[in-house]
Amino acid sequence: MVDLAQQMRRHYHDSVELQFREKQGRMPHSGTEIRRAMLEDAYFKAWSALRYSAQEQTWWSVQPQVERNAAQISAEAAAVARRRGPGSLRLDPKLAMPRDVTAMDIHLMPGCFHTEYSPGDVSTAAMYWHGTAVFSAGLKMRHNGGGVARSIAHFLKCSRPDFSPKHLLDIGCSAGNQLLPYLDVYPELIGHGIDVSAPLLRYAHARARSLGYPVHYSQQDARSLDYPDASFDLVVSSFFLHEQSPSTNRKVLREAYRVLRPGGIMVHMELPPTNAVDPYYNFYLDWDAYYNNEPHYASFRKFDLATECAKAGFASDSFFARRIPNWGTVSESEFAESARGERPAPEHGNGASWYIFGAVR
Ligand SMILES: C[S@@+](CC[C@H](N)C(=O)[O-])C[C@H]1O[C@@H](n2cnc3c(N)ncnc32)[C@H](O)[C@@H]1O
Prior knowledge:
The protein is an alpha/beta fold. The chain has two domains: 2-60, no CATH class; 63-360, Rossmann fold. Helix content is 47%, strand content 14%. The chain has helices spanning 2-24, 31-38, 42-60, 63-82, 99-102, 123-135, 147-159, 180-185, 198-211, 246-259, 279-285, 287-291, 297-302, 305-312, 332-339, and strands at residues 88-90, 167-171, 190-195, 215-219, 232-238, 260-270, 320-325, 353-360. Strand 5, helix 10 and strand 6 (260-270) form a beta-alpha-beta unit. The protein is globular, with a radius of gyration of 21 Å. The two termini are 41 Å apart. 41% of the residues are buried. The structure holds S-adenosylmethionine (SAM). S-adenosylmethionine binds next to helix 5 and strand 3.
């Protein structure tokens, strides 16, 4: 799919863009215009059908194994959780699931993030864990390796050497794969992860405990956290905000501000906003909004991040937004230079770099 996508961009420039210019006497201004021009194009239709099918097959490739072993995986997760060890798990069976999660199967994953098929179930988490490994197999990002978290943690180390966080909160932590690497980079850190999905949190807790990480997982809605004010030095999220409505994101930013101590830092890894990339890449990225059950994708990318962080309470001059290289794909000295803003990070796409934004409390 990665090769076909690169080929599609060439095809667009060689054919669809030329036709557009001939007809309109100008270049397309936006991803929306390019999408309209591409809708009847045979290459786009074939690529789009293949991509949709590849997304479905991602889940189908792991579903039978997960279903066959569901009882055993859940029993093992429960056994690890009963063992003495670091960290904890706090579930809230009364928590109402947000509509953004229940309305449709995001990424076409059967059951979405939250469905429980039996008491103590972790099969949704096993689907997510193994499915995302299949999905990212051809990319540089290797989702389960925690590359986003490792990159952000090293970015903080390089760009703010005096910052030494003790308490971390990961919002929408899923199975915790983008949480644990922070504790590798900052060994003094105590991790907290919240998510609405009980199966994912059970899995995350069993995994962190069996690996010996002190992480406290808790089932909460990010719009209304139960932590006291100023509880954390670092609040992060990854691949989370683009799945939320604008009104949810405003509440999440306000909660992040509230639970950070003064001087604490918020960092989100997200899709690059519409104004940070060219019109073709906007068209390409927004594909998920139309065909991959990601209804907020395009609206999130239009969200004015700096203004919204300021509305949440953060000082405007503390806002930052940039690409950082994916840790491990460039040398450590190149990474450090990019982190300090001395050289540009690679272009966004296929896990070569991450787009991050945030602010200081
Ligand atoms: C795409 S996943 C994020 C994955 C994870 N951060 C990572 O990088 O692998 C989005 C997660 O957010 C959770 N979620 C969605 N809405 C939420 C909310 N309002 N509060 C807390 N968690 C939420 C979902 O259950 C899901 O696990």
